[in-house]
Amino acid sequence: MNILDLAVMAILALFMLAGVYKGFVYTAIDILLYAVCVVFAFLMTPLMAFQVEQNEKLFNTMLYYTEGSENIYDVEYIKKDIAEIPNAELEEIYERSEVAFPMNERIRANVTDAAFESMGVTTLGDYFNQTMVLVTINILVFLVLFMALRIVLGFILGWINYAKPLPVLKKVEIPAAIGAGLIRGVLAVFLFFMICPIVLTVLPFDVVKDLVEGSKMAKFFYYSNFLLGFIPGV
Question: What is the pTM of this model?
């Protein structure tokens, strides 16, 4: 157990206490709003991410900080056309290149599908670069969209509850509120760990990676993150 485990447990405990304070009905509605925000963000991410990609200065800045080709262990492969690299060698490159999840999976898929061929991107180094910067953009855009709608809907819910307090389930209120608060906390932690691949890419220090790998909870919320599973790499 390390500091990340303690931080996650503290967050979950706070959300359970918040569930008791706000009540089960309020917390359950808040969970529903979370789902609405997730769906909205995923639907809007391709459109908004495209707008970011069209900003050449911003795109190049993000490309500089996420330069994926640096992760290729053999520099001879960086300028090599993906069509000229045998599958066995590609698999070795994937295994030996320290690329954060889910970027590693998106690189593999993009190379297999030659996803950027229409853009004139053919070298392995450019596939690493292009994929990693696009995943980063998609994650950040998703989070911004989610938080923007979440703030608006949260304000509306709070106003409704203030104007006319939501009902309280007297017999099962506290246990139900604790359970709903825990669910809300788990969803919030999943959302928080969406930033993990970007942190591991921009700050590729062993101490950061060891902190994540040494935490059972961090590994669960990161590698089992259903939100990251839906983030596209193109």
Answer: 0.92
